Amino acid sequence: MSKLVSVGKILNFHGIKGEVKVGFSSGKEVLLKSLKQVYIFLDNTKTTFDIESVRFHKNFAIIKFKQINSINEVMNIKGLLLLVTEDTLKSSLEQDEFLVSDLSGLTVYDTAGEKVGTVCAVGDNSATNLLEIEKTNGLKFMVPFVKEWVPEVDIENRKIVVNMMEGIESLFTAQGNQQ
Fold first, then answer.
1. Whole-model pTM?
2. Which of 4, 136, 152, 173 is geometrically suited to a Cys-Cys bond with 161, CB 3.0 to 4.6 A?
3. Separation between Cα atoms, residue 143 and residue 60, nearest integer Å
4. What pLDDT, on a 0 to 100 scale, did the predictor assign at position 164?
5. How far apart are CA 106 and CA 45, in angstroms?
6. What pLDDT is recorded for position 123?
């Protein structure tokens, strides 16, 4: 079976008929609406919950599960993560969207085709994701994960192309030497 990935967290009940208030990443409304079921680890046991309805209120999803019909039942799952298989998540990705787990370990090349290093981590600075790249000499630097900096991502061939803009390498190389 495919690895499980979190798509939201049950924050609280909503109303008295067993609906739950779910926190989720912005922009994932279409994914949540498309789900028919999710997994929740309840007492360390993976349990399947069938989704009856999904709607949105403010910045939260309001979800009704077929198995939950009261506030008391919601309290048993409050604070738990909603999980889907990685395959389910991948099938919902739009063009130029990738799972963080798929980016880590990719070989990085510059636009001239020269090997630069490997993606060793993916971070977030609230404006955009950042790729942390470990160069072949062991030094690390970060680039914004945007089309201008990263014009090509080829998951199938485990390769990524980074635009090594003038000055960026020396800036991060100098920073790396100070450690």
1. 0.62
2. 152
3. 31
4. 82
5. 33
6. 80
Residue 93, pLDDT above cutoff 90:
no
Identify whether residues 173 and 123 lie together within a single domain. Answer: yes
Domain count, the chain: 2
Domain coverage including residue 104 = 100-177
Question: Are residues 84 and 13 part of one domain?
Answer: yes
Domain closes at, from 64, 92, 120: 92
Mark which of 92, 126, 142 sits at the end of a domain. Answer: 92
DSSP structural state of residue 59: T
Does one domain contain both 64 and 119?
Answer: no
Token pair in block for residue 113: 């085709």
Question: Which residue, 116, 147, 119, is CA-closest to 133?
Answer: 119
Q: Are strands 19-23 and 4-14 parallel, antiparallel or unpaired?
A: antiparallel
The closest alpha carbon to 120, from 163, 95, 136, belongs to: 136
Lowest mean pLDDT among 58-67, 81-90, 108-117, 153-162: 81-90
Is the pLDDT at 176 greater than 70? The verdict is: no
Closest CA to 3 of 131, 117, 89, 124: 89
Q: Kindly report the length of the chain.
A: 179
Task: Find the CATH number of the domain harbouring 39.
Answer: 2.40.30.60
Q: How far apart are CA 71 and CA 158, in angstroms?
A: 47
